[in-house]
Amino acid sequence: AASVGQLALAHAWGTSFRRYDRVVGQVLLTAHDISRRSHHANAQRTLDRLRSLGAVAVVNENDAVATNEIRFGDNDRLAALVAHLAGAEALVLLSDIDGLYDGDPRKATAGQPARFIPEVAGPEDLAGVIAGSGGSLGTGGMASKLASARLAADGGVPVLLAAAADADAALRDASVGTAFAPSGERLSARRFWLRHAAETHGRLVLDDGAVAAVGRRRSLLAAGIVAVTGVFSAGDVVELVDQRGELCARGVAGF
């Protein structure tokens, strides 16, 4: 179904953009294309080249070959990853709800209305927010969009969450929906890949001194490693955790 549907979808996009004399290129990705550094760089170059040629890249998950083990999970997460991959100036996530509320506005009552949140500048603006999962007709839902918006914002990409019916206003003056401010400077492609996209192959358990050193972005010495789990080679990404199992960093193994 996905294999047949991809052709129909690409044709629909091409027909629609032809009204504006724009060429459309389809880019199908799997989670491996983002999690592996060489594939990640190739995808980045492809999107850059399409843009330089004036083509509109329509990105989707390659459902025809993806399995449960190598799926992004939903298009919201894929959009957040691709927004950083492509160096986008902003990410617009469209929904059937006009923005973020602290509860489901469709289930709110007169005595307990859902509060609309126009702007998210940091985690404190999300205190008390309850986001639901997707329904029976799709994955994602508001929980997915919220997680993806925070992922993109963490990488330095501003996000606007709005209703699909308000897409025109969202793309013009962003006067609708909920705006998520980027947190700090935009991460480099490598650091964003390490933090959010890379597939990890092992785990290093560190003592307290090594955790403190890594937190100050100092080199990790072998003496600070308490235990090693998993199988990895030089160049693989590993997780660094403290002795309670709390993740404190990710890095590329040198050995």
Report on this structure.
It is a single chain. This protein is an alpha/beta fold and 255 residues long. It has eight helices and twelve strands. The radius of gyration is 21 Å and the shape is globular.
Give the helices and strands, then pairings:
Layout (H helix, E strand, L loop, with lengths): L1 H17 L5 E6 L1 H5 L1 H16 L3 E6 L13 H11 L5 E5 L4 E2 L14 E2 L1 E2 L21 H13 L4 E5 L3 H6 L5 E3 L8 H9 L2 E7 L1 H8 L9 E6 L6 E5 L5 E6 L3
Parallel strand pairs: 1-2, 3-7, 6-8, 9-11
Antiparallel strand pairs: 4-5, 7-8, 9-10, 11-12
Helix pairs in contact: 4-5
Count of β-strands: 12
Proportion of residues in β-strands: 15-25%
Helical content band: 25-40%
Topology pattern, helix = H, strand = E: HEHHEHEEEEHEHEHEHEEE
| Mean pLDDT over the residues | 86
Largest sheet: 4 strands, mixed
Residue stretches low in confidence (pLDDT < 50, at least 5 long) are 135-139
Radius of gyration: 21 Å
